[in-house]
Write a structure and sequence with these properties.
This protein is an alpha+beta fold. 31% of the residues lie in helices and 21% in strands. It binds zinc ion. Residues 141, 144, 250 line the site of zinc ion (ZN).
């Protein structure tokens, strides 16, 4: 252990730069406190980071509980639970005094974060009394095991150190780590790794998504907050703890730089204040300096990872947190890899060659790369962050309140001043759920008590007003406005920096909720508004003597009522307009009443004796096709279906041959996937085919026989829905059985997106406009025009069919004004092209979508296009 007499804050970073060495030898040191606490080696039976040795989530939590019992510096708090029901925690490590004062320190955090009216003197006092809370979220992506595996070493070291420099840091910082952001996935991946350890498939991929639903997309959920683990972590920085600094810890590919640290690369989000970026730069610069001083090589910044999109854990930067990510080069879970020096390469933004550069000052030169190496980088980077936070404690805390005042002030002096959600909405259930989501984000929303005029436009009582003069102003603006991608070029007039991820997330547009941006101040608005409390609902009491409830087809929630009612054995009828009528089942606490009580919008209650013309609704028996290959779009489909109580069975591609579709199902759904994965269980890229990293029992595709079976089901009256890349399954020659032989056919549709891309169309994931045909059962409850989440392909061209086939264009791009939100090059190439098509062959029906109607559970505007086909007569 390094002993430095009378350390001061300037020395602190130097001390932490040496801390790697101190951690490596900590088990040899016996401080007074350490004598009573089991070391990680003693507890786990190996030093975390040892080749091929890993512990699971329960073991990790057990160790942290042991530390909590043994050390006054450690406090564990439950923050929620995972989607599969595992308890989730944050572990706080700080001086014993800070841990005893946590409640008081949290209150200081809250005041600094949310109170714009503190006097300068109060802010100064709070900054002196308060501590910097550094939140670290570990291993949300479960194959990226090192951050969680390194935590016991960090926690033990901090809990037991008697090093004066470290103790001084613990006086100034509360390190709060989420031991694992994704406990379900951690246990799945560890179990799978240990299952194949020592076999030829050691290090193979987990044959499913490493989460109940979202898989890798769990890092895209921090606007929609659909998943329980997302909400648990968002709550830490939106409503409960208000840390000032946040790092999310990841791993990346194996063949390039060893470690990415902040700052990120362009483009960066326009709505984030310069002060946030500047502090991110300070933490990043110190990490580069400290980690290099620790002897760690291959560290790069300003590289690959841009920062223009919200949705990751780092969405906290829109809530004034100094937030960033780190990314370590991966091994095969816990098995080491060897890299030849000339195999190492880069290609991302900011680093064109794997060569010494200003943002990559000391390249790693290859060799063995092990879990233990990543663990060392994790320890070093963590201590650097804590050291920077401690050394800048007062400034960081004052900055947090500056950001609060600054954002509130911007909201008072710069347009837009308000967003208004009018009370009259096409889908009132989405209107209500949007308001509740905003409240969950820590945003204050208000309800108008009286009708008002805004810029000559009448706004009715009951409308929702969201003022921008709030501490989280930048988030409000980001998620309420239409997105305009921050276009930046590598050189003047040169190539555009392409988006890393999607380019649109506007909540009103994605949900089909109309929203008004108000660019002028309305002086007496505040007096006529009341704060909306969670949960917001538009419900009225269920009357005693109604005969039936009518659920309007415009509301997504009505479909939920239908699926729930059918699951409970209630009869559901559908009117010609598409509304759903459910008769009351009578008795005390009847089934229908209990469903109504779950709805955020009340249905229309029909009095006794009402005569309605309607036809009974039957829900299709659904086969949902999910591959074993981290099938995130299928996972999101399961999530949406489970949320709406839609019944379904999973069928894997390899099971097609033995599945009796005609007997067991009415409808088969293919979420977005690649044709080669579905048909053969292989990846295809640039005309080359690649095997996957799964054991062979998980890679069987549909195959030719399976496809004939599916086409027979189709021909004989089966229904198929297919979107995104999966639509390609139905292009080219197909065949059905004809007696003892097969008969070939070609559906009257083809994908023309490759041609459009050659002509310059580029759409990375934006909201574009689609016009719908009215009067078709597939479009019931939809407006005539809607936003769809589109990623450039497929785009359809239909043709005049032969024999027993037919087609109808259900949705097409308009002539102009195609792009609604996001980024698109040459959108005019899409003009008048088809993007949703209904096809018929024999008695069967097929719906092809050029978009995912349920993309990441964030495109509620198009959910009805998915639900309607499930209820076709
Ligand atoms: Zn990751």
């Amino acid at each position: 252990m390094i002993n430095i007499a009378n350390p001061n804050l300037k020395l602190m970073r130097k001390i932490f730069a040496l801390s790697i060495a101190s951690v490596l030898i900590f088990s040899l040191i016996c401080s007074a406190e350490a004598q009573n606490i089991k070391t990680p080696e003693e507890f786990f039976g190996f030093r975390p980071g040892t080749d091929r040795k890993v512990f699971n989530y329960e073991k990790l939590v057990d160790y942290l509980k042991l530390l909590e019992q043994s050390s006054p510096r450690v406090k564990l708090a439950q923050i929620g639970q995972s989607p599969l029901g595992k308890p989730m925690y944050v572990v706080c490590i700080s001086s014993g005094e800070n841990i005893r004062n946590l409640d008081k320190l949290k209150e200081i955090n809250r005041q600094l974060a949310l109170n714009p009216d503190l006097s300068a003197e109060t802010v100064q006092n709070m900054a002196e009394e308060g501590k910097v809370f550094v939140l670290a979220t570990l291993s949300m992506h479960s194959t990226e095991v090192a951050p969680s595996q390194s935590l016991p070493l960090i926690a033990y070291s901090l809990a037991t150190t008697d090093d004066p420099g470290k103790l001084k840091c613990l006086d100034n910082v509360v390190y709060m780590a989420v031991p694992c952001h994704n406990p379900d996935g951690m246990d799945m991946v560890i179990e799978n790794y240990l299952k194949y350890l020592g076999t030829e498939f050691e290090g193979s991929s987990l044959p499913r998504v490493y989460h109940k639903y979202a898989g890798h997309d769990n890092n895209r959920d921090f606007i929609s907050l659909t998943q329980e683990d997302t909400r648990a972590i968002d709550g830490l920085y939106s409503r409960e703890w208000f840390p000032q600094v946040m790092v999310e810890k990841h791993q990346m590919g194996s063949g390039g730089v060893r470690y990415f640290i902040p700052p990120p690369h362009d483009p960066i989000a326009e709505n984030i204040d310069a002060g946030i970026w500047n502090w991110v730069g300070v933490f990043g610069s110190n990490m580069m300096k400290d980690m290099t001083a620790d002897g760690l090589k291959g560290i790069s910044q300003n590289y690959l990872f841009d920062d223009y999109w919200p949705g990751s854990t780092e969405t906290c930067i829109w809530k004034n947190v100094i937030g960033f990510l780190t990314e370590a080069a991966s091994v095969h879970v816990a098995s080491p890899i060897y890299c030849e020096e000339n195999e190492l390469e880069t290609g991302g933004k900011g680093l064109s060659e794997y060569k010494k550069s200003i943002n990559f000052p000391e390249p790693w030169t290859g060799g063995w790369w092990r879990l233990g190496d990543i663990v060392n980088y994790e320890i070093s980077s963590t201590y650097s962050i804590i050291g920077t936070a401690a050394a800048n404690k007062t400034a960081v805390l004052k900055f947090r309140n500056f950001m609060c005042r600054n954002e509130v002030n911007k909201g008072k002096t710069k347009a837009p001043y308000y967003y208004i959600l009018p009370a009259a909405q096409h889908d009132r259930s989405e209107f209500v759920s949007l308001v509740n989501l905003l409240i969950e984000h820590g945003i204050s929303t208000y309800r108008l008590q009286n009708d008002i005029l805004v810029s000559g436009q009448a706004i009715a009582a009951g409308s929702i007003v969201i003022p921008l003069a709030q501490p989280f102003r930048s988030l409000i603006k980001e998620i309420m406005e239409k997105q305009k991608y921050p276009v930046r070029h590598y050189t003047p007039d040169g190539e555009v920096m392409k988006p890393y991820d999607i380019a649109s997330w506007s909540l009103p547009l994605h949900r089909g909720v109309s929203c008004l941006e108000v660019d002028s101040l309305i002086p007496d608005l505040v007096s006529g508004m009341t704060l909306v409390k969670e949960p917001f609902r538009l419900s009225k009491p269920v009357p005693d003597n109604y005969s039936a409830a009518c659920f309007p087809v415009n509301n997504n929630e009505s479909f939920k009522a239908v699926f729930m009612a059918r699951a409970r054995g209630l009869e559901v009828n559908r009117t010609a307009k598409g509304d759903f009528v459910i008769k009351r089942d009578g008795g005390k606490n009847p089934k229908l009443d209990s469903i109504i009580n779950l709805m955020v919008v009340s249905p229309e209650f029909l009095p006794q004796g009402t005569v309605i013309t309607a036809n009974p609704v039957k829900i299709a028996r659904i086969a949902l096709v999910e591959t074993f290959m981290h099938d995130m779009d299928a996972g999101w489909t399961r999530f949406v279906f489970d949320s709406y109580s839609v019944p379904y069975k999973i069928v894997h591609p390899g099971e097609f041959e033995k599945t009796d579709f005609i007997k067991d199902f009415d409808l088969v759904i293919f979420p977005d996937n690649e044709k080669s994965i579905l048909m053969e269980g292989k990846y295809e890229s640039d005309g080359q085919t690649y095997p996957t990293s799964y054991p062979p029992e998980y890679t069987k595709g549909i195959g030719k026989k399976g496809m004939v079976k599916l086409m027979d089901f189709f021909n004989q009256g089966g229904r198929i829905l297919s979107w995104g890349g999966s639509a390609e399954l139905f292009s080219g020659l197909l065949s059905v059985k004809a007696g003892d032989t097969t008969r070939e056919f070609r559906l009257p549709v083809r994908d023309i997106s490759k041609r459009l891309a050659k002509e310059g169309l580029f759409c990375p994931g934006s909201l574009v406009r689609m016009d719908l045909v009215p009067g078709n059962p597939l479009t019931a409850g939809m407006p005539l025009s809607t936003g769809i989440f589109f990623r450039g392909d497929p785009v359809f061209a239909t043709s005049i069919p032969n024999f027993d086939m037919d087609r109808r264009v259900i949705g097409k791009f308009p002539e102009d004004n195609i792009l609604l939100s996001g980024y698109c090059e040459k959108p005019e190439k899409l003009a008048d092209k088809s993007v949703m098509v209904w096809l018929k062959k024999g008695k069967g029906q097929l719906v092809l979508y050029g978009f995912s109607p349920q993309f990441r559970a964030s495109t509620q505007a198009t959910y009805k296009l998915l639900f309607n086909p499930l209820l076709l007569p």
